[in-house]
């Protein structure tokens, strides 16, 4: 059989490989009406699966398109116990407001509210953890401070710091003894550095 267009080829292949229309329709009806939200499945993912099942059903036979309120009932009854309170609230609505879009909107709003609560809880825990860490750090600093009060510097004999942290200048005798071993690169004499050479820099 020769097909003139790609559309004709597609239709021919579809007829060859698709299961019988009645069996396929029965399978799609069962899939659509039996679809359920999986445990821990995101609401958006479940809604997408429901929409795809509906689209497949309509593609197989447009007469099988479910009515709007049927879709709303399926969404409510198969969304899971996580949304039990919201479902009970929706059951109190006026009949005119009971549409698939409004039910979906109400469930999505509740889902987003829960996500915001979870995010703010995590943020709050992070702030508390940081605050606790800061308190521990502050107490450690104060403990270190009290410990240092008992330390005596062997350079200046003052309490409160180690010799390595001493801010007091070394004594002149220490400076002199240190400089005695220094050799000036300008004049070659000992006792001073090149930048302090009394002869000055000779080019």
Approximately what portion of the residues adopt beta-strand conformation?
Answer: under 5%
Average of per-residue pLDDT values = 80
Biggest beta sheet summary? none
Structural class: mainly alpha
Helix content: 55-70%
- Gross morphology is elongated
**How many extended strands?**
0
Number of helices: 7
- Rounded to the nearest angstrom, the distance between the terminal CA atoms is 103 Å
Which sequence of SSEs, written as H and E, runs from N to C?
Answer: HHHHHHH
Question: Could you describe the 3D structure shown?
Answer:
The chain is mostly helical and 203 residues long. It has a domain at 6-128. It is 59% helix and 0% strand. The chain is built from 7 helices and no strands. It has helices at residues 6-17, 21-34, 43-60, 68-78, 84-90, 100-148, 172-180. The longest helix has 49 residues, at 100-148. It is elongated and about 110 Å long. The termini are far apart. Residues 153-166, 184-199 form the CCHC-type domain. It holds the Pfam family Retrotran_gag_2. Keywords: Metal-binding, Zinc, Zinc-finger.
């Amino acid at each position: 059989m020769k097909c003139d267009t790609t559309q004709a080829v597609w239709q021919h292949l579809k007829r060859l490989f698709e299961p019988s229309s009645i069996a396929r329709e029965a399978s799609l009806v069962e899939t659509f009406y039996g679809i359920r939200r999986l445990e821990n499945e995101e609401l958006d993912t479940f809604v997408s699966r429901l929409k795809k099942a509906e689209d497949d059903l309509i593609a197989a036979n447009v007469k099988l398109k479910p009515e709007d309120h049927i879709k709303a009932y399926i969404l409510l009854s198969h969304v899971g116990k996580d949304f039990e309170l919201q479902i009970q609230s929706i059951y109190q609505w006026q009949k005119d407001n009971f549409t698939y879009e409004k039910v979906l909107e109400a469930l999505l709003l509740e889902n987003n509210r829960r996500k915001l609560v979870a995010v703010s809880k995590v943020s709050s825990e992070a702030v508390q953890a940081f605050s606790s860490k800061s308190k521990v750090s502050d107490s450690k600093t104060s403990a270190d401070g009290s410990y240092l009060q008992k330390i005596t510097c062997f350079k200046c004999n003052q309490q409160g710091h180690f010799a390595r942290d001493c801010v007091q200048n070394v004594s002149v005798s220490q400076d002199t003894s240190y400089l005695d071993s220094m050799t000036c690169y300008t004049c070659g004499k000992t006792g001073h550095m090149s930048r302090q050479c009394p002869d000055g820099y000779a080019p």
